[in-house]
Design goal:
There is one protein chain. The protein has a single domain (2-247), classed as NAD(P)-binding Rossmann-like Domain (Rossmann fold, 3-Layer(aba) Sandwich), CATH 3.40.50.720. The chain has 8 helices and 12 strands. The chain has helices at residues 11-22, 44-48, 65-86, 106-119, 137-143, 162-173, 192-202, 240-247, and strands at 2-6, 26-30, 53-56, 90-96, 125-130, 145-146, 149-152, 156-157, 181-185, 190-191, 208-211, 234-235. Helix 1 links the parallel strand 1 and strand 2 (26-30). The structure holds NADP nicotinamide-adenine-dinucleotide phosphate. NADP nicotinamide-adenine-dinucleotide phosphate binds at residues 6-7, 9-13, 30-33, 37-39, 57-59, 75, 94, 96, 111, 130, 132-133, 136. NADP nicotinamide-adenine-dinucleotide phosphate binds next to helix 1 and strand 4.
């Protein structure tokens, strides 16, 4: 089975490509640095030729609303045109839990546009929606940093390891298309303040954590449940404590 992984060199894409290779699949891990660009279309149709499954794990280099909309819209249109030419039988994408509940966040609006393009593509599909990756906590923390404090929302969060997300994508790609979305999340739910306090302690950052209702999520105001799964989600195996120990080299 030939599997085309767009964004196959990224955080999730590289893990997915290597797991599928170990499973004996014929994997093409595509990315601009490998001469395949889904935004411009460069090299796309030739690289996708003969693919049975298309997995899109690419990402916009900017989280700005217009840039991310332009990226996911143009890139998805090019992917769909090439997938139709190649006769792709299953289109898998990775979206974000809560995207539908946070329309004030331009990046998440762009992810919804991507989801709708996949649903309307006519190609059998599976949408995997993941919560925030553990690997993304540092970026969230930077967005909440104000001087020598970290000011966070009161909301709940259920982050997941990139390895667990990759396993869910691989299982989806090797199964029949679901023609719907399903959610994946980490094994534990935290208050954002608890999670960030644990993260700061682990990296020896002595800053105080404060809670404020005005601290949103990259421009969106959060409700208590905005970032957690809407229904029964597939849960990852790796806990935050295991992940942070591994990241810190304390095995
Ligand atoms: N961060 C989170 O917490 C989170 C949560 C849920 C879902 N997601 C979703 O997960 C997906 C993957 O995220 P990630 O963190 O693995 O991304 P990443 O590490 O930034 O990797 C992005 C990949 O996309 C490739 N790419 C960029 N522009 C491209 C183009 N024009 N054509 C083809 N490939 C291109 C990159 O290739 P180069 O290296 O050559 O640029 C790279 O391989 C995203 O769609 C994101 O929305 C993220």
């Amino acid at each position: 089975m030939k599997i085309f992984v767009n964004g196959g060199t990224g955080l999730i894409g590289s893990r997915v490509a290597s797991r599928l290779n170990s499973n004996g699949c014929d994997v093409l891990a595509a990315a601009p640095q490998r001469g395949v660009n889904s935004l411009t279309g460069l090299g796309l149709s030739a690289a996708m030729d003969g693919a049975d499954v298309l997995i899109d794990l690419s990402n916009s280099s900017s989280f700005d609303a217009n840039a991310s909309l332009n990226f996911f819209q143009r890139s998805s249109a090019n992917l769909i045109a090439s997938a139709n030419k190649a006769g792709v039988k299953h289109y898998v994408i990775l979206s974000v839990v809560g995207a539908r509940r946070l329309p004030d966040n331009g990046y998440l609006r762009a992810k919804l546009v991507q989801e709708n393009m996949v649903k309307n593509s006519g190609i059998p599909y599976t949408i995997v929606r993941a919560t925030q990756f553990f690997e993304f906590i540092g970026s969230m923390m930077i967005s909440w940093s104000v001087g020598n404090k970290v000011i966070v929302p009161q909301a709940l969060i259920q982050p997941i390891a990139a390895d667990d997300v990759a396993n869910a994508i691989v299982d989806a790609a090797l199964s029949a298309p679901k023609n719907c979305a399903f959610e994946v999340a980490g094994p534990q739910r935290f208050r954002v303040s608890q999670l960030i306090t644990k993260y700061l302690a682990a990296i020896d950052d002595l800053r105080d954590v404060q809670i404020s209702e005005e601290a949103g999520y990259f421009g969106a105001i959060l409700e208590e449940d905005s970032l957690i799964p809407e229904s029964a989600a597939r849960l990852g195996a790796v806990s935050f404590d295991q992940w942070i120990r591994f990241k810190s080299g304390i095995l």
